[in-house]
Design brief:
heterodimer; A: alpha/beta; Glutathione S-transferase Yfyf (Class Pi), Chain A, domain 2; Rossmann fold; four-stranded parallel beta sheet; 13 helices; globular; B: mainly alpha; 12 helices; 0% strand
Chain lengths: 290, 191
């Protein structure tokens, strides 16, 4: 199966390990990921906040590039890119005047409809748990994890049309198939502070602090994420969170594709597990998975 | 105490926000589920319920300087729980555009600065150069050492490359042209 793969800016930078592990896992499952040539940023939250037309136009430009790839499906690992691309396609389909205006701005025709998936939804629903189960050669038996979905992949449901917005289960299911022990917790979809990372760091410390403390209290070996913004916020702020309570937190924050990759038999280095701020390799070694 | 007099001018902001955002704020029940679940609502940052109340009451200055819509990270929690499904991040965009058109200075200059620098990188290169955007932000806020220890650790682990700072990224004419056509300018014609 060949699909268009829209990595988004972060996956070329600080979230390279998400890109690396996604590619290994998809190759293992026989899926060909094809990047659209010359893709550009979707504008992310700054464009969405500051200029509606710009935001829709940036996504539309990428949709036009992908429409030329002769594929039916688009896969976006970044939940914000996923939500923005999906939303832009719907906005344009529902509003002929907007379509006209956007076509003028991007100077390209907008035709056709693509099926736009987030990577978690694509793997768990389109590829399917049975196909994934067949590829698991090293089940992650005894690894205790809490599944963290964050916001953009499920909320708001009228835009994402994916899983349950308050108690999603697709990541739980996929991690169970990989053999991990999935712990129950209260913060599956609680916000990490997203793009306020730099400008309101104290807010991010407050919000991620709730997640880190709960995960530690539950005895999780790691928090498993599907979003690079969640990963960065949770990975980078544990010193500040610990300093407020005179504790040392070191909870590894791992992409779900990295754990799937381990279960498929790839090495930690292939999956970029050495690139994290809080080292996940030590605990994985201790449990015999690395 | 604020009393609504029924003057047409009191409805001007409400009309504009509803038109631009496509959200029917007249359906708002003021139930407060939005602010109850909002990650950024606090005593200092009023939250969505307060913001909608200000718009409904024609409190233009208060609404356009309310920090809520600057803080909004478009997580979508409020809309998920809203009984009438008001999409607040669409409202945030409408207020941001209206504040700019009305010449109102951003009430949260740090958030505004970061978002501006982010979009500048997109306009120039077509994609965001994370390291350059972060460095530019830290320099402009006169806090050049912020998170430096973290950056160095990530570089040592190979997760971030200092080369991204030094080597030039290719400029992307197409994105620059989209930006300029959105602005309605003609500068993009030469691109």
């Amino acid at each position: 199966m060949k699909v268009a793969y829209y990595p988004g800016c972060s996956l070329e930078g600080t979230a390279k390990q998400y890109d690396m592990s996604a590619k290994h896992v998809c190759r293992g499952l026989g899926i060909e990921l094809e990047e659209p040539h010359g893709w550009t940023c979707c504008g992310s939250s700054p464009a969405l906040k500051m200029n509606r037309l710009l935001s829709t136009a940036l996504s539309a430009h990428n949709l036009a590039l992908m429409a030329r790839q002769n594929v039916a499906d688009v896969v976006a690992p970044c939940p914000f890119c996923f939500r923005r691309l999906k939303s832009a396609q719907e906005e344009i389909a529902e509003d002929p005047a907007l379509r006209e205006r956007v076509q003028q701005v991007i100077e390209e025709p907008l035709n056709g409809q693509l099926a736009i998936h987030n990577l978690l939804g694509f793997l768990s629903q389109k590829v399917g748990l049975d196909a994934i189960r067949e590829k698991v050669i090293k089940p992650l038996k005894g690894l205790k994890v809490v599944p963290y979905y964050g916001c953009y992949v499920v909320k708001p449901p009228s835009v994402t049309s994916f899983d349950d917005p308050e108690n999603p289960t697709s990541l739980d299911e996929i991690l169970k198939v990989a053999g991990a022990e999935v712990l129950d917790w209260d913060f599956k979809v609680e916000c990490c502070g997203a793009g306020l990372s730099l400008s309101k760091t104290e807010k991010v410390v407050e919000l991620t602090g709730r997640l880190i403390k709960e995960a530690a209290w539950r005895g999780a070996d790691a928090i498993v994420v599907v979003c690079q913004l969640c990963q960065a916020n949770l990975d980078l702020r544990q010193q500040e969170i610990g300093a407020q309570e005179n504790k040392n937190f070191a909870v590894p924050i791992i992409y779900f594709t990295q754990l799937l990759g381990l279960a498929f038999g790839y090495s930690p280095r292939d999956l970029g597990l050495n690139r994290h701020f809080v080292d996940p390799v030590a605990v994985l070694k201790e449990k015999g998975f690395a | 105490m604020l009393r609504i007099t029924g003057a047409v001018s009191e409805k001007e902001l409400l009309d504009q926000v509803m038109l631009r955002s496509g959200q029917n704020l007249l359906e708002c029940l003021q139930c407060g589920k939005c602010s109850g679940g909002c990650p950024i609502a606090s005593e200092k940052v009023g939250g969505p319920r307060q913001l909608i109340a200000q718009i409904l009451s024609g409190m233009k200055q208060e609404a356009l300087t309310n920090p809520t819509w600057w803080y909004c990270v478009s997580c979508g929690t409020c809309m998920t729980r809203c009984p009438v499904e008001i999409n607040m991040y669409e409202v945030a965009t409408a207020l941001c555009e209206l504040a700019e058109e009305n010449g109102i200075a951003p009430s949260e200059p740090d958030i505004h600065l970061f978002e501006e620098l982010f979009l500048k990188s997109v306009e120039r290169y077509g994609r965001v150069n994370e390291l350059r955007t972060v460095t530019a932000y830290n320099l402009k806020t006169k806090n050049p050492m912020k998170d430096m220890d973290k950056g160095i650790t990530l570089m040592l682990k190979g997760a971030m490359s200092p080369l991204a700072m030094l080597t030039g990224w290719a400029k992307d004419a197409k994105t620059g042209r989209i930006f300029s056509l959105v602005r309605g300018g003609t500068e993009g014609e030469q691109a």
